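Task card 7
Instruction: Convert sequence to structure tokens.
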Amino acid sequence: MERRSRADGDLGFHRSRRPSSSSSKPPNRSDASQSKNKRIETKEDRFTADDSSMNSSSSTSSPIVGTCSEMCPVRERAQRERLRDLSVFERLNGNPGRTSPSLAPSDVRPLQVLQGTLTYLLNLFNNSSEYPFEVVHDFIFDRTRAIRQDLSMQNVVDDQAVCMHEEMVKFHIISHYRLSRCIDNPHASSLRHLNMEQLLKSLTSLYDLYEANQKSSSVTKNKAEFYSFYVLLQLGSKSQLMGESLSLWFRRLAASSIIKSKEMCFARRVLRMGSFTRFIATTASEASHLQLCIMEPYIAEFALAKLWATERGLEESQNSEAVAPLLK
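Output:
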């Protein structure tokens, strides 16, 4: 990964440019998807093993304090150069830092660097229309996960960590919506699945941070809306729970003012609706932008189910009319 002068305020990423040679063009979509799936599996295996190691030693050691002042640690950049795993948004691309408790502080980015990295990534996310969305998402997907990992390793649980997790949840929610519209990409389904996994993990981490910051007034303004996302993710026939039934989850929140908030009341009402007309009307008039991004992919499914039920009802009605004279 090529770096500019630190005096320019660059934190380690090379400014993205449209590739000018064939060697730096985005790879074939099929090859890219296969490569990503293989890369994700490798990372997940390592994360699982390392996280277990971290958990077993957390009671005997204090959190690591990162000293890396750039967006990407030096050793990781060297590894990426050897692997030649290229991205259109930086000169070199590769695997996020490992989570072993023996990891050197120079491989871990402190809070202010992580905040700068996230700001860079979100700006790229909002201003990269020249590239296919799947390419942009792939680049940011890995790096936001590495940011969460570095925050967790250093046990950063303050208000700033809450805000950063909220921004990363927003990224995955908007990606959930936009990936559902990538109908021309044969690998869009796997991309949506991977994004949903990280959305649920990000929400889980965010809820833990909310619990750790209950006495902080600055983190309460968005809590109701972000708790409502969990409810809305139960819409549709392919909903993914986070290891707890919705009824138990509601019961756990019963003593909190969150359960009576406008956002949660909306989410619970939508979840119980059987009328497609009311569902659409309520969504259009009351849903926030992020709530709508979660719900939009399910609206088509709801409409198809309603159409199927209507056609089935007409068919049964016609059959009843035909059979009725025979029963007299």
